[in-house]
Recover the amino acids of this structure.
């Protein structure tokens, strides 16, 4: 069964089509990748959010919202992602099939045209994005960055990234900083928009049953109107091994501390062994069969959650843990012990089988959700070769015990970030 | 046993409703070309059920706050392998949740469905609690409670509910408090279990890559017949008025988080599907993305795109909540109230109503992509006494007059309260 089609439809523009008539929607996204840089991250982010709220045909957000409601709640979304050291700005559309319309509205066709209109024809004044729009977007971006910080689990993860990847592009927040957002000018945001259209690596992803050929044509024509000079492939700096372990400690008014450990993974993103590495990370801190869950959480009750995440595109591994201040040192020690035990092959066959079967199950379930499918391919934006989830599931099946130990030996601890709670009794309801 | 096929021509979907001989209601919704299956086994028992008795028995039993959630955690354990270890052998990813009015156990899988369903039916029907395992869980849940104390959106909601409600147990945290869960014992857990985990009070729903006969066959083998039983819930009479109109909490947040709630007169135990849909359309008209208010607040810099509204309702409680992030929560609250006053006078217009209706109808169609959402919606529908396909039909039949008349009756600012979570530095 062919699960997806991928083809270059113009220089620097790739289309991925995942046909699926089981869904009642069509999802189209245009993802624009540029190198992640501290000085442009904020402007790029502000630009794509701004684009999602108005255009010449619907010059304010309220009019656009009314149009989307009329298209049966079609959804236009803007998103900024970090894939390796690329910053990816995405505009997307989700719309129900025409056959479910209560009248004869041609929902998908109008939706696609609207998405392209937003991307290519924002409201301009004197050749620049409107001052009011930029002003609003600056404020929203500041609050977006701050609101991520409100969620302490995310905050701790971002802080670890900033510390561990200092001097590497990956350390840059995909939304930029609050200070940068506040200082953005009309000129910068307008330039960011033009830069995206002219220079980005574009991926158009379509999931659902729609006329992919017709959409490819519409997209191609739209991009033909700009002077395209796409950048070459975006490379991510590969740091195979950690040096001395860095420790960073911070105190905040929180009830429960957070602990994040960052590891380097000595394996490039498209290495043939990445399925084994994925499996290794799952054995380390994936499901309930994993070493971290069984030991750090269950046996030693050191934390409420303790899990590992593989960042394939940056060759890194991050362990996150919700942990009381007094348990942190023991938890760090135990996480390191468990990594050692993985290296020594000190895990049970039944747990390895459980990890395998669980991962295969998860990979196979990707194809039942348009969002999961979209995200699956988005995670491979920098890859030369795309893989379907089914293919990854097959590769997962083939991983051996020996490969797990070998992979674990390619993981080294780089940075420890501790978010500790300040003295108790500072935050009570009145 | 009675198996009924329920079809929707307009949606091109169908599901089966089964009255199993054991007293359990079962729903099966096969979805063509899906590779996963999602199963959910739920009981109408949540955090608000803190006082109850079996019909015909003497006194009401009152149990510690948070016990339904505690029970959910404990049920995964058995004398031998716990349920997670058993699922590990089938590859299913399993979970459970407890809300105000239900507890559900679920799994999704892309293979070994029969074995996973057997595990689900087996562990939920076979409780095993001891003094030791209860004590161990008190530590783990204590940490979970503490974790939520740092989640601004959680704290802002429960502080609001405590401001709106005097007596109704919706005002208590679903997980209880570190103090209340300390009073939980194995005997109390068994008492709750034997009352609420009764097949007459439960529902099973399976959606996705599934065959109805297979589900029935497994149920025939694994379900234990139950004698009919009726539960009486002792809901304390909740006064119409609110406790206080403000709640403040301090947490390290960069942007203050707020929730403005309107306590509604709860005239019947639970709202009908019509009540829910009319109210959702009304809220979209008042404060959704298609409303004037939303854009006015956004343009004035008073809210960001996290702003939303919700019809928050269940057995014996009904309120409307507007929540979001703002540097000036008090001003937002005033603006919302002002707009409600205005709209009550001028009434909602046809075009706004039609936009909102279409939008929510479209979102309902979108939910059919997702088997997890579908299965959960079937369970909700079952506990509330309507059918899944009724939802789409209801969107077709609601009128502007109905919604305007609702707007006239609801959202009375005399019964509103504002809850805010902000950083100490902002106070």
């Amino acid at each position: 069964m062919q699960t997806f089609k991928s083809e270059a439809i113009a220089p620097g523009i790739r289309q991925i089509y995942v046909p699926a008539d089981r869904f009642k929607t069509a999802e189209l996204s245009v993802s624009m990748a540029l190198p992640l840089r501290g000085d442009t991250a904020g402007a790029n982010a502000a630009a794509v959010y701004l684009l999602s709220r108005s255009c010449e045909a619907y010059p304010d957000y309220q009019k656009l919202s009314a149009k989307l409601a009329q298209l049966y709640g079609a959804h236009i979304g803007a998103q900024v992602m970090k894939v390796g050291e690329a910053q990816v700005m995405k505009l997307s559309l989700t719309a129900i099939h025409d056959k479910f319309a209560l009248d004869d509205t041609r929902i998908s066709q109008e939706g696609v045209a609207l998405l392209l209109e937003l991307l290519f024809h924002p409201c301009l004044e004197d050749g620049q994005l409107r001052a009011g729009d930029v002003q609003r977007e600056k404020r929203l971006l500041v609050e977006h960055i701050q609101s991520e910080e409100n969620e302490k689990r995310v905050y701790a993860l971002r802080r670890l990234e900033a510390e561990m990847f200092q001097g590497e592009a990956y350390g840059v927040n995909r939304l930029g900083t609050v200070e940068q957002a506040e200082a953005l000018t009309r000129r910068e945001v307008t330039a960011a928009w033009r830069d995206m259209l002219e220079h980005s690596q574009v991926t158009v992803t379509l999931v659902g049953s729609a006329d992919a050929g017709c959409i490819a044509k519409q997209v191609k024509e739209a991009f033909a109107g700009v002077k395209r000079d796409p950048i070459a492939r975006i490379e991510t700096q590969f740091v195979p091994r950690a040096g001395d372990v860095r420790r960073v400690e911070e105190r905040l008014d929180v009830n429960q501390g957070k602990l994040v450990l960052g590891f380097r993974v000595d394996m490039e993103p498209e290495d043939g062994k990445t399925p084994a590495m994925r499996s290794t990370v799952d054995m380390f801190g994936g499901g309930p069969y994993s070493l971290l869950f069984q030991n750090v959480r269950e046996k030693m009750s050191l934390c409420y959650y303790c899990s590992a995440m593989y960042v394939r595109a940056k060759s890194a591994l991050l362990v996150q843990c919700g942990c009381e201040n007094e348990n942190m040192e023991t938890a760090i020690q135990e996480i390191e012990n468990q990594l050692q035990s993985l290296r020594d092959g000190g895990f049970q066959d039944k747990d390895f089988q459980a990890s395998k079967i669980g991962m295969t199950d998860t990979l196979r379930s990707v194809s039942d959700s348009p969002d999961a499918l979209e995200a699956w391919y988005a995670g491979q934006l920098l890859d030369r070769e795309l893989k379907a989830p089914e293919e990854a599931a097959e590769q997962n099946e083939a991983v051996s015990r020996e490969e797990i130990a070998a992979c674990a030996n390619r993981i080294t601890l780089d940075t420890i970030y501790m978010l500790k709670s300040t003295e108790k009794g500072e935050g009570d309801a009145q | 046993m009675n198996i009924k096929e329920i079809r929707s021509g307009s949606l091109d979907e169908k599901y089966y409703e089964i009255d199993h001989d054991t007293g359990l209601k079962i729903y099966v919704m096969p979805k063509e070309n899906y590779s996963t299956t999602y199963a959910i086994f739920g009981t109408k028992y949540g955090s608000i059920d803190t006082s109850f008795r079996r019909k015909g028995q003497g006194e009401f039993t009152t149990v510690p706050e948070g016990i339904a959630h505690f029970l959910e955690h404990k049920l995964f354990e058995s004398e031998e392998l716990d349920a997670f270890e058993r699922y590990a052998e089938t590859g299913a990813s399993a979970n459970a949740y407890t809300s105000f009015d239900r507890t559900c156990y679920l799994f999704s899988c892309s293979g070994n469905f029969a074995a996973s369903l057997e595990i689900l039916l087996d562990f939920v029907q076979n409780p095993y609690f001891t003094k030791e395992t209860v004590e161990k869980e008190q530590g783990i849940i204590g940490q979970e409670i503490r974790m939520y104390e740092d989640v601004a959106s959680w704290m802002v909601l429960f502080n609001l509910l405590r401001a709106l409600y005097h007596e109704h147990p919706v005002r208590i945290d679903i997980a209880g408090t570190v103090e209340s869960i300390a009073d939980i014992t194995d005997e109390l857990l068994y008492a709750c279990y034997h009352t609420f985990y009764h097949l007459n009070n439960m529902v099973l729903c399976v959606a996705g890559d599934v065959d109805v006969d297979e589900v029935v066959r497994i149920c025939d083998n694994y379900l234990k017949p139950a004698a009919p039983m009726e539960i009486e819930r002792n809901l304390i009479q909740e006064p119409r008025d609110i406790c206080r109109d403000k709640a403040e909490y301090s947490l390290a947040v960069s942007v203050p988080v707020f929730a403005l709630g309107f306590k509604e007169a709860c005239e019947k135990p639970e709202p009908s599907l019509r009540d829910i849909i009319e109210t959702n359309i009304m809220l979209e008209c008042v404060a959704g993305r298609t409303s004037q208010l939303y854009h006015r607040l956004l343009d004035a810099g008073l809210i960001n795109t996290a702003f939303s509204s919700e019809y928050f309702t269940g057995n014996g409680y009904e309120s409307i909540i507007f929540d979001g992030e703002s540097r000036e929560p008090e001003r937002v609250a005033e603006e919302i109230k002002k707009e409600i006053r205005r709209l009550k006078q001028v009434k909602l217009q046809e075009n706004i109503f039609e936009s909102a209706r279409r939008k929510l109808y479209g979102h309902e169609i979108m939910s059919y992509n997702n088997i997890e959402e579908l299965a959960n919606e079937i369970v909700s529908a079952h506990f509330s006494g309507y059918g899944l396909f009724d939802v789409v039909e209801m969107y077709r039949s609601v009128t502007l007059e109905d919604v305007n008349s609702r707007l006239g009756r609801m959202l009375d600012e005399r019964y509103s309260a504002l809850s805010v979570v902000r950083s100490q530095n902002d106070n």
The longest strand of chain B covers residues 317-325. The CA atoms of residues 43 and 164 of chain B lie 27 Å apart.
